[in-house]
Amino acid sequence: MESPENISYSVGFIGLTYLVIVLSCIVVSWWVLQTFRFDAFCRNPKGIQAKLLQILLSIALGYQVAKFIMDYIQWSMQLKWMF
Hints:
The protein is mostly helical. Helices cover 73% and strands 0% of the residues.
C-alpha cells in the first residue's frame, strides 16, 4: 500500500504535467494563429478586440489539443489492462 505522501506527490506531479501540456499547447496555438489573416474577418485587425479574439481562440484551440494529448496518454496507459 502506498503512503499518503507518495499519493499526493503523484497527484501533484500529474497536475503539474497536465498544466505544462496545456500551457505549451496554448503557446503553440498562439504561434500558429499568428499566420492567420484576421484582417479579412475583422474591421480593425490591430484593435484590442481582434487581439482578444486571437487570445480566446488560442486558449480554446490549445486546450482542445492538450485534452486530446492527455486523453491519448491515459487511453494508452489503460491498454495494459486488456492483456
